[in-house]
Design goal:
Length: 137
């Protein structure tokens, strides 16, 4: 029994030394964080809006439809504004970024901003743009 407790203590001490000696994970670069945010934006919105996913060529959501409601719209706006805040935290407008990172942040801001404006200014989810076409048929 005493041998087992010494072995266990030695194992715990070795594990602690191993963990302490292991290098800390490198902090994600601005580019990696921007890429992760863009990927999250595209694929979460694709999941929430399967018809748009099909239009973008993203498979896996075929056969599903969204159920539009005011709560769903509010969730979309909440997600978009959270991503916009994350973008400003990753790449502040006054920050010093590489040219590539600055351009990526600008393009992502334009895409997120366009999605916000589509819901708040243009109300695309509340309008029936197919009305004139349906009148012809």
């Amino acid at each position: 029994m005493r041998f087992a407790s010494r072995t266990a203590a030695a194992f715990v001490m070795f594990a602690q030394l191993f963990v302490a000696a292991a290098p800390a994970p490198a902090a994600a670069t601005v580019h990696e964080r921007l890429t992760a945010l863009a990927r999250q934006f595209v694929f979460v919105m694709a999941q929430r809006h399967p018809l748009e996913a099909t239009g973008l060529g993203i498979s896996g959501y075929d056969g599903t439809l969204e159920t539009p409601s005011e709560a769903y719209r509010a969730q979309d706006l909440h997600l978009l504004r959270a991503w916009e805040a994350d973008l400003h935290a990753i790449a502040p407008p006054s920050g010093s970024l590489t040219l590539v990172d600055r351009d990526d942040a600008t393009l992502l801001q334009a895409q997120i901003g366009a999605s916000i404006r589509a819901l708040t200014v243009y109300n695309i989810d509340r309008k029936d743009y197919s009305g004139p076409a349906n009148a012809v048929v």
